[in-house]
Amino acid sequence: MTRSVAFLAVFFASDLAFAQASGDDRARSKAAFDEARKLVDAGKCEAAIPKLLESVRLFPSVGARLTLADCHARDAPLSAWRELKAGELSAIASGDDRASIAHARAKELLPRLAAIALELPLSDADDPGLEVRIDGAPFDKLYWYSGAPIAVDPGKHVVGVTTPKREFSQTVEATIGSTAPVRVSLSERIVKTTPPPAIMTPPPPPPPSTQKWIGVSIAGAGLASILVGTIVGAVVLQKRGDLDQRCKPGTFPGDCGDGTMTSAEQAAIASDYDAAKTLSWVSTATFIGGATLLAAGAVVFFTAPKASRVTIGWSGLGLRVGGTF
Question: What pLDDT digit, counting tens, does each position of 241-294 carry?
C-alpha cells in the first residue's frame, strides 16, 4: 500500500461526514463564519473565536479551521497547531488545495512547541489495525505518518502503539523547541491469564473437648447405675411376690402360714424378708444415684466450651475466612 492510498483510507470516514452535513447546518456554519471573519478583519480575534467554534461545530470547514489557527497562533500555538492539522485533515478528505497551506503553517509553529516523532517501519505503519495513543488519547495517522512531529504539552508522555497481536509502550519527555524521537519496536502481546481459584478442602472437625468426654463418662456411669437399680428392683418385686403367697400381704414375717410352720421355716421367711428389704434399699439408692450421675453428666457435657474451628475457602468475591470459637 502506498502512503497516499493509506491517507485516503484513513480520511474516507471524514469525507462521508462532510457529505452528510445538512444544508441548514452548512448555511448556519457559513453565516457564523462570515460574522467571525468581519471581527477578525477588524482586529477582534478574541470575539471571533466563539463564532468560529460554532461554525466548526455545525460544519468543520477548512476556512474556519485556518481562521481559528490564526486567532490562536500568538497566545496558544499548540491550539493553533491542532486546528491546522484538523484543517489539513478536512482539506485532504474533501480534496481542498488548502491542505498544503495548513501543513506548511503547522510546520512553521513547531519551533515554538514540544513535539514527539514516531519512527516505525512502513510495514507496521500501514497495518490497518495499528493504533497510536499518547497518554491514552488516540491520534489519527495524519499526525504521525512518515515520522511527522506530533505537538504536545511540555513534559513526560506515555506513547503506546498496538496492533491486534503486538504492542509497544515508552515514556518520553518533550521539551519546547525540540522533537523527541520514539523508535517503535513492536513485540508480541503478553496475554495475562488468571488461574482458576484453588479448591480448598476444609480441615476435619476438631475432636471433642476433655470436658465433654468427662460429661459422657459421668452420664454413662449414671445410665449403668439406673440399669442396675432397675434389675435389683425387679428381683425385689419377685421376692415380695413369693412372700405374699406364703404370708398375709404386709404382715410377714409375723403372720405366715397356717400355724403349722416349724421354727426353721419361720426363720427362713424372716431371712427372705430381710434380704428383700435390703435389696429394696439398694435398688432405690442405685436408681437415684444413677439419675443424679446422668443429670450431672449432661450438665458437664453441655457446658463444655466449643472448640475453635477456622475454615478457609473461596466465595464469589474472593478468599473467605471464618470459624467458630
Answer: 666 666 655 555 555 555 556 666 666 666 766 776 676 767 677 768 767 866
Overall domain count for the chain? 3
Q: Is residue 84 part of a domain?
A: yes
Q: Specify the pTM.
A: 0.53
DSSP notation for 220-251: HHHHHHHHHHHHHHHHHHHHHHHHHHHB-TTT
User: Looking up cell 481542498, which residue turns up?
Assistant: 96
- CA dist list (Å): 34 to 40, 50, 63, 90: 10, 13, 10, 19
Residue 219's domain comprises 210-304
pLDDT band at 202 (very low <50, low <70, confident <90, very high): low
Q: Are residues 6 and 45 in the same domain?
A: yes
Lookup: cell for 175: 521539551
